[in-house]
Amino acid sequence: MSRVADAFWRAAAYCFRPRVIALSLLPLLVSAALAFGLGYFFWEDAVTGMRATLDSWRLIDTLLGWLDHVGAAGFRSALAPLLVLAFALPVIVVLSLLLVALLMTPTLVHLVADRRFPALEKKQGGPWWKALSWSLWHGLLAIFALLVSMPFWLIPPLILILPPLIWGWLGYKVFAFDALAEHASVQERRQLMRQHKLPLLMLGLVTGYLGAAPAAIWAFGVMAVALAPLLVLVSIWLYTLVFAFSTLWFTHYVLAALQELREARAEGAKPASMPPLAELLDPPAAAPLLPSPPEQGPV
Any transmembrane segments, and where (predicted)? Predict the structure, then answer.
């Protein structure tokens, strides 16, 4: 736990560095451009399709009719856009995480390594194409898990458990791999991720809850539809900062663990100390034998 806490406060301190704050703007600009571009071309079609789907469900139509009867007619027009935003939010989160992993993680790893571990050897156990495929594959698995688990979010306790668990698993897989990709060999990376699986999963779970926190800005109800462009931009920036902190946290932890692993191996590989050559050629003389005491005759 001391290593986890040490990595935590170091990562928090690094987040206030101007270089880290400036780096967070690049994923923000890229993801914001993609989000607004997709919204410009597909928002109307998505809302229309969602509204047609809701109208085809008798139960939803009955519920909306009851809401119209009690004076909540405005909710009918806002339900479809809200559901489109709800389905788009997991994609935005995964997109932000992948952009941080691709655009920020290499620079952040170099920053930590240069300042704390300048003598740590780089064994290049994870080339860029392998890290990219690893991140994309686990990102797709996380999106699939989120979509499959969405019906269970209607159960009040599970909505506070399932999404952070999925974010935590994704963060553990992506951030730990990226932080070790350049410095650790394949065998070292596998050994560290196996030996430190529980602490790394705990880091992922905490960052998963941190990643779920920005979703609170969508708790404006119907107003979220009108404020959607601003809320999308703010949420992407918050996700970027959270995932940048997560990258730094994982990097400080795994590089310290890698250094300790190599130091332990170096200690175990040291040869046993040999006696000096002079002692081998000229061994010490044997101690003189003491004369045995005289035998006493019978009294």
Answer: 20-43, 82-113, 134-155, 161-180, 200-230, 236-255
